[in-house]
Amino acid sequence: MSVKPTKAMVLAAGFGLRMRPLTEKMPKPLVPVAGQPLLDHVLDKLDQAGVSEAVVNVHYLPDQIINHVAPRQHPRVIISDERDEVLGTGGGVVKALPLLGDAPFFHVNSDTLWIDGVRSNLARLAENFDPARMDILLLMAPTATSIGYSGRGDYGMMADGALRKRRENQVVPFVYAGAAIMSPSIFAGAPKGEFSLTKMFDRANEQERLFGLRLDGVWMHVGTPDAVHAAEEAFLESVA
What we know:
This protein is α/β, with parallel strands linked by helices. The chain is built from six helices and 13 strands. 45% of the residues are buried. It has a seven-stranded mixed sheet with strand order 5-4-1-6-11-8-12, sandwiched between helices. The longest helix is centred in the last third of the chain and has 15 residues. It is globular.
């Protein structure tokens, strides 16, 4: 069984501290890569995947993001205003749940960037999300072929897609690529206020309802100014 999410949550409220000095006067989602802001890369992919409404949360330099997305129609952008509070990646989703509805939705970090392979990875997520078996399906990038990533990975992945969280001293082959499909039900009883979305990942993992899908294409970890240049080179190579 697959789903076809028509709504998405886009996290755009972060301070982008590691991206300084680019983010001293500009929010990270508006940092341009390969000719357009990171946020537009994400919104374009959501539009191509059939999303009609994207909830975008804002906190740091919020007016710049609000003004930037105001003219956009596809998808239509709804702002979840967090300028008076810091809610974290999890608390931001909880606040936006009334806008997202009861059906599974796409969840995408505004600073995630990837080049699709033969097919849209968001469409592949929708085809592989089975609400009977899973609460969260994460797009997982192989660490060996990712650009700008030098960490130890996040999860190991079983043959059926079930994820196993990396232990403290372990190295695993997959890193979360910043895109997922989630069922709103996983947030029942979620903490109030600020908390990390990884709490929900851990909850789903404990219930054996956290799964992953291997990204088809190239994922870029755009966390620092230097990584912007590496990402742009990858884009140039992809169209060469």
